[in-house]
Amino acid sequence: MTDKTQTIHSEWSSRFAFILAATGSAVGLGNIWKFPYITGENGGGAFVLVYLLCVAGLGIPIMIAEIMMGRRGRQSPINTMQTLAQQADADSRWHYLGWMGMIAGFLILGYYSVIAGWSMAYIFKAFFGGFFSSDATEIKALFDDLMNSPIQQIFWHSVFMVITMQVVSRGVRGGLEKAVNFFMPALFFLLLILVGYAMSSGSYQQGLDFLFTPDFSKINANAVLTAMGHAFFTLSLGMGAIMVYGSYLPGHVSIAKTTFFIAGADTIVALLAGIAIFPLVFANNLQVDSGPGLIFQTLPLAFGHMGGGWLFGVLFFLLLFVAALTSSISLIEPTVAWLVENKDMDRPQACIWSGVACWLLGVAVVFSFNIWSGHTFFGKNLFELLDYLTANLMLPLGGLAIAVFSGWIMKTSDSAQELALPEQGYQIWQFLIKFVAPPAVFLVFLHVIGVFL
Ligand code: TRP
Predict the structure, then answer these.
(1) pTM, rounded to two decimals
(2) Ligand 1 centroid – CA 120 distance (Å)
(3) Nearest C-alpha to atom 12 of ligand 1 is from which residue?
(4) Running DSSP on this structure, what letter comes out for residue 157?
(5) Alpha-carbon distances, residue 390 vs 12, 68, 114, 300, 409 (angstroms)
(6) Ligand 1 centre and the CA of 234: distance in Å?
(7) Is 330 a pocket residue for ligand 1 (Cβ < 6 Å)?
(8) Quick one: DSSP state of residue 170?
(9) Helix, strand, coil % (nearest 5) of the chain?
(10) In 10 A of CB 439, how many CB atoms?
(11) By C-alpha distance, which of 170, 131, 434, 127 is closest to 325?
């Protein structure tokens, strides 16, 4: 076991490599696909404000805690939690946190891969001129055609799963660092071009108002829960993904500084995506609450109309696919690391087992968009149910547990040593992780239960 732990536990080649990988995990479909459509569904400005507050007040301190715990434990989340609980003389049942995280990552990847498949399908639609001189109705028809075709979706979902598992089987360092190094700046650049186009669309101001003028009458407890859940989702928190990445982090690196960078980059990408998309929604009289299809029904319009749109369209969906890939890797890494540590498998074997299981779940998700769309539980189809269960319940619960463990259970001497922060910085972190994060998550949960009762 010790030998094996060491072989899996290669370290990142540098602080920069860790930043790239963690940013690659954070920046993904959550920023570009999910943030705009849930903002649309929840009325805009007020929702965005709550989301930003959650990133700053909960996301950042919890990310610091999760990376710190990973680096101290240096194993898969389940085994890390076991070790840390022992070190703190705490109940060994804390390792169930690792289990919940592993299951959450697995459930998320089940639908994440399907959406990533949509963006792969769109690379080809863009390539073959699908976005040319199209109006909003034609673009919508293009999306509906994909939604109604289980075969197309399963095909792309399968291709995506194979590529993901191929990358994961080579280990976190092979290839990943290079991919992120190139794609992050490129994605950023393309988003700026799209924002530039949005400025010329005529409804730019209306889009900005929608995003940044809060109207609190538009949100309720459920919207607040969605905003909080999304803060966890978009930063990849609460399920051990960042914990595993932290476990590969060299000892001398400043965790807090690294976290600020990751959270900052992640937030900027999401806001840029929103700024690029909403002016188009208003300029073309589309519905702000059109749901998961939102970016697929708006951005092609921009590509259809702007100079060089063909090239930008292909590039954009290609980059979205890469962004999804670097996130997916971190969703499955805890499961793979655990199978390797505990089930005597090598990485390729672990990838095959977990990949096949995830693929099957994804096929069911594909059906939930067409032939099974009538089958709902609590009014939600399988996709919506998985999303709600993971982003709104499991991740905040995981985050709550991480906050409680790192703030109240772990010895302060241990966390202080690992974080190596200046005195004041450490105190701010302690305050947020002990007195702000746990009550905040708890209160939001209570509020939502109150709404249901
Ligand atoms: N953060 C990613 C996104 O925004 C998704 C993701 C990757 C994730 N790893 C995670 C979400 C771990 C929760 C937990 O697209």
Answers:
(1) 0.93
(2) 18
(3) 236
(4) H
(5) 28, 23, 16, 30, 25
(6) 5
(7) yes
(8) T
(9) 80, 0, 20
(10) 13
(11) 170
Determine the straight-line distance between the first and last CA of the chain, rounded to whole angstroms.
Answer: 49
Is the distance from CB of 7 to CB of 171 less than 8 angstroms?
no
How big is the chain, counted in residues?
Answer: 453
State the Cα angle at 69 between 68 and 73, rounded to 5°.
120
Between the alpha carbon of residue 22 and those of residues 18, 145, 149, 419, 424, the distances in Å are 6, 35, 34, 17, 26
372-399 core/surface letters (b: 16 or more CB in 10 A; e: else): beeeeeeeebbbbbbbbbbbbebbbbbb
Candidates 80, 53, 101, 173; CA nearest to 418 is 80
| DSSP states of 239-252 | SSHHHHHHHTS-TT
Q: Is the CB of 300 under 6 A from ligand 1?
A: no
pLDDT exceeds 60 at position 2: no
Provide the pLDDT for residue 167: 86
Nearest residue by C-alpha to atom 8 in ligand 1:
236
* 26 pocket-lining for ligand 1 (C-beta < 6 Å): yes
> What's the pLDDT band for 136 if we cut at 50, 70, 90?
confident
Residue 394 C-beta-side C-alpha neighbours within 13 Å: 24
Give the per-residue pLDDT at 107. Answer: 96
Give the domain CATH number at 119. 1.10.4160
Q: Which domain holds residue 196?
A: 3-452
User: Residue 133: what pLDDT?
Assistant: 64
Q: What is the pLDDT of residue 182?
A: 75
Atom of ligand 1 nearest to the CA of 323: 15
The total domain count for the chain is 1
Q: Which of 111, 330, 392 to mutate to test the pocket of ligand 1 (most atoms within 8 A of CB)?
A: 330
Please state which of the ranges 1-10, 221-230, 242-251, 395-404 shows the lowest mean pLDDT: 1-10
Q: Between 418 and 6, where is the model more confident?
A: 418
Q: Is 28 in the pocket of ligand 1 (CB under 6 A)?
A: yes
Residue with tokens 């498949």: 117
pLDDT band at 452 (very low <50, low <70, confident <90, very high): low
**Other Cβ atoms within 10 Å of 254 Cβ, number:** 13
- What is the distance of C-alpha 430 from the center of its chain? 25
What's the 327 CA to ligand 1 centre distance in angstroms? 6
How far, in Å, is the centroid of ligand 1 from the Cα of 243? 13
Looking at residue 3, its pLDDT comes to 38
